[in-house]
């Protein structure tokens, strides 16, 4: 019973922190992007414009909720809630330290991949229910994108599973503690797998260069074209949360999670997550996007065969040098 | 066992609750002033013409079928990956054979042009 | 010359007026209006796309959303009043619009422009070309990468360089946009040696920053992937459609009015005409990026050789109705950043012949856009945005 209370308390805490971080990052990203673009970014609301996120949310809350006449009302309303739900739910099994974890689920990796993949359904649902051509095209693109990145993502996540011999995220981190990060050792399946996982994670959270479903210069707003006010915010929030949680998953699976010298484990995990998180946005504000057929071809021609080879390499490593793990 | 899944349930409920609360807040707080024009679908500022619910031709359906195959393969692979240490060399050989067949399928599909975006 | 693909359809080009029956029999097509209010239509422009999935089967462009009736207005305005109006045509390169108009009037009147004024005009034209080409690169990268991403980073950096050039113009004319600096017979504002120093330092800054922009565009593999082989325009088709400027030179057609029909000071200052062979969007970008460097070189040459002397040969303008032309007609064309901007003027209209009877512009962007129905079929929706952006149209001069 105490385990349950412990898990529930930490779970809600993690949710709160994840949400706050994503909210703060709306300010952070605007500042960051502004600096990349020789601008100042938000400066008016609060010191250094820090309250910009609050102002944004308050403004969005007061926006009129418009549902297009011919939209499928139920699905149209369900989609943003589902997107936010999926993105937040993944946070449940991420170990931020040996203690700070909601549930050390023994099939954690499967849970993460499963709930993460559900986001595609939410996005497609929103695109389809809007009854708008741009949104529909966006939804179709998100499906095309999902069938591209999903296999490399799943196979790349399998590499640490094989190396650690467990599906629990905590076990995978524990296996890395003291030894090494999987991204560094064994470097052959580890580092490329981390690269593929990170790329696929960018695609899963619709980040440039893979923000194809919402390509605003092509599809105006993509799937969110018809969404106003808070429903748009939910999609928007889901993307940020998804990116943050995805960074945390990558940090746990490949970068050794809470493992690190001189500082408490929690600090290391948060630092690793944030470094990955910020690099996502660094990439976002530096590159242009791919086309969906280019992503499809790239994933299937290069990433899928490569990740199959990586899985075999990991298995071979476990068999050949079990003592070097 | 239960203590592992109950916190998940709590988190999922909290996530769903949070999303619903934010959703409801927006719906309640926002102004309501619907007009016929507002409810029209947006299409670059010109009236939307033609059917909106057209069946979009899927240019990537062969890839989608490949995706299903590989996704099921991944489902097979995960238990194997988790138990791999116990399966030993035999497990590796078996899975290598399985994956080889799959990769041959992929190469075949590739050569047949299934990975081309149809134009 | 880079290693570019040769155009795939060297002998025949796709028929833009495709028979739709064949497609409608197989499955329904989606009719999607791209524009007028769309982030990537570079103003207000509409293309009706008939989509099969995401692939464009047929594209029908509609211009006219920015039509202001300027050509009709010109029949009422006097010759003197017209220069500030044309600033609004090509709103990325207003200097060249002014020049095209006044060159036509000078031809009609038979006025000889002083040498210094001709050199100044070339200098302004080249500065304007740098600003315009940089902006074209920036807007294309927004089309490719979105306003919330890497595209806008390059865009804002390009905008920064444009600001440098706007500052230079402001220093001379007092205006950042509606310069009204060209007049019949020459220029109205002279430049100072300090200004020349400012130009040199601005050129140095831009030249130093260009490699950075290259690394974000023409040297970036994603950018290349998105533009190479996209929207291949055949050189002969381009000539037939009247496409000019960088879009024509990207198809391997060696044509530049600055060299082939010199105006301003270009008969004294030779221009290296930049030609690319690909005909695709990447080639169009490459032509512009290389032309920026060529223009910077020309600016140096023009500054170096800027002759002394008067800047206007026509009697000073005191009244708006002062210039009166009884009869005659003239066509004059100059090479703007977008291509051949022609002005055709028939004299003898308005109150006592103070206005033209008819004034007609030949905007290069309109002719570039006429290639769209040929370029879009077979491309995807994403490509449509790339192709439109790479043609670098300015709706202000398309619709007038």
Structure description:
The complex is a heterotrimer of chains A (325), B (119) and C (400). Chain A has 325 residues and is mainly alpha-helical. Chain A is 68% helix and 0% strand. Chain A has one domain. Chain A has 11 helices and no strands. The two termini of chain A are 36 Å apart. Chain B has 119 residues and is mainly alpha-helical. Chain B has a single domain, classed as Methane Monooxygenase Hydroxylase, Chain G, domain 1, CATH 1.20.58. Chain B has helices at 2-29, 61-82, 84-111. In chain B, helix 2 (61-82) packs antiparallel against helix 3 (84-111). The radius of gyration of chain B is 25 Å and the shape is flat. Chain C is mainly alpha-helical and 400 residues long. Helices cover 46% and strands 11% of the residues of chain C. In chain C, strands 1-2-3 form a 3-stranded antiparallel sheet. A 3-stranded antiparallel sheet of chain C has the order 6-7-8. In chain C, a hairpin with a 2-residue loop joins strand 2 and strand 3 (55-62). The longest helix of chain C has 31 residues, at 115-145. Chain C is globular, with a radius of gyration of 21 Å. Residues 1-11 of chain C have low confidence and may be disordered. Chains B and C meet through loops of B and strand 1 of C.
Question: Which descriptors would you attach to this protein?
Answer:
heterotrimer; A: 325 residues; mainly alpha; 11 helices; 0% strand; B: 119 residues; Methane Monooxygenase Hydroxylase, Chain G, domain 1; 3 helices; 66% helix; flat
Which helices and strands, and how do they pair?
The complex is a heterotrimer of chains A (325), B (119) and C (400).
Chain A: H1 2-36, H2 52-61, H3 73-89, H4 108-129, H5 133-164, H6 169-176, H7 187-204, H8 216-219, H9 229-254, H10 265-284, H11 292-320
Helix pairs in contact in A: 1-9, 3-4, 3-9, 4-5, 5-6, 5-7, 5-11, 6-9, 7-9, 7-11, 9-10
Chain B: H1 2-29, H2 61-82, H3 84-111
Helix pairs in contact in B: 2-3
Chain C: H1 21-26, E1 30-34, E2 46-52, E3 55-62, H2 70-74, H3 79-86, H4 94-109, H5 115-145, H6 150-173, E4 182-183, E5 186-187, H7 193-216, H8 221-227, H9 235-241, H10 246-249, H11 257-260, H12 281-304, E6 329-336, E7 339-346, E8 358-362, H13 364-369, H14 372-375, H15 381-391, H16 395-399
Antiparallel strand pairs in C: 1-2, 2-3, 4-5, 6-7, 7-8
Helix pairs in contact in C: 3-4, 4-5, 5-6, 5-12, 5-15, 6-7, 7-12, 12-15
